[in-house]
Amino acid sequence: MLARRGRDGEDVATDDVRWGLLMARAQDGDKAAYRELLLEVTPYLHAMARRALAANEVEDAVQDILLSLHVIRHTYDPARPFKPWLATIAQRRLVDHLRRSARRLAREKPLADEAALAPAEAATQDDRALAVRAVRDAVATLPMRQKEALLLLRFRELSLDDAARASGRSAGSLKVALHRALATLRRAMLRV
Predict the structure, then answer these.
(1) pLDDT for position 3
(2) Domain range 12-107, CATH architecture
(3) How far apart are CA 43 and CA 40, in angstroms?
(4) Rounded to the nearest 10 degrees, what angle do helices 12-27 and 82-107 cross at?
(5) Which of 99, 109, 150, 189 is 20 to 30 A from residue 42's alpha carbon, by CA?
(6) How many CB atoms lie within 10 A of CB 96?
(7) CATH number for the domain whose boundaries are 114-191
(8) Would you say 50 and 111 are in contact if contact means Cβ atoms under 8 Å apart?
(9) Could you tell me which residue ranges the RNA polymerase sigma-70 region domain spans (predicted)?
(10) What is the 3-state secondary structure (H, E, C) of 112-154?
(11) Is 10 buried (19+), middle (13-18) or exposed (0-12) by CB count in 10 A?
């Protein structure tokens, strides 16, 4: 078989055949062949990732590709070329990585200077005060049994047995009351 040179200057046909043989041996349980395959494909994967991603993201992306390769290695058909199979896996993982990065960047906001943070902190404190007031008002509207279960189990953080002894009620009764109290509070907070 004649070998041709790839974009990175490597011997494409030789790599493809060699890597395919190593993967076939790895599928048969040859750990040394699998280790050798991973060592040989890693520079190729690094080159692919460097073309698609920022330098600080390359290593994570390569590890993600190698993990995917490990998980789906049983799907490789030794009768087919290895390199296109690997490249497809790598490209899909790189696209996934780019999508995750884009979502993360869309959620994150750059820090502003300190002058701009001061009003935000004040607004946050006002929001907290309003939220605390809303929770207090919602707890005040609860029936006494639910309020007692909430106080003992959530605010005092007593165990169910200790709360049952302290209230003179059964553990089951306390659990039901707490569940109802939390559901009522959730509904009240959604209206705020």
Answers:
(1) 45
(2) Orthogonal Bundle (1.10)
(3) 7
(4) 90
(5) 99
(6) 14
(7) 1.10.10.10
(8) no
(9) 42-104
(10) CCHHHHHHHHHHHHHHHHHHHHHHHHHHHCCCHHHHHHHHHHH
(11) middle
